[in-house]
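To whoever picks this up:

The nightly regression suite flagged BLUF domain-containing protein as changed. Nothing in the input moved, so I suspect the structure step. Input below, exactly as stored in the fixture:
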Amino acid sequence: MHLIIYISDYTGNAGQISTDLEDICQTAKNRNPEHDITGLLFYHNGNFLQAIEGEKAKLESLMAALERDPRHEKITRVVDCPIAERGFSDWNMDTFELEESESISRDTLHAYKKTFTSQMEMDSAVFIESLKSMSQDRNLRAIVVS
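Regenerated output under the current build:
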């Protein structure tokens, strides 16, 4: 089992994001189960943060497809490591919107990763709970993908 968390910049206009998120949600709902990939997608102020988990080869194939997706650019992996177990095994595709708030920069995410990984072994469930907590604290817009 493997976990990849990346950040990227949305390339569309703000008026198109709801349509793009619906399309992303539907595509993930259709494709991810057959590849046994689960994950979580956050969108906030023109940025995506996505956590995906599954077999490493399948995640790399998905990442290759995501890197060709014109809806985002500047894809940066924040976490790319083996994990003991899934954090999303019983989650269905859900969409929820939260209010806008301050931005989360790449530097903030890299600092978060460094602090997290230096203090404990990477555990998907713990890291995912941290992301969920961060989303509530930062009032992000999120999609849960499984």
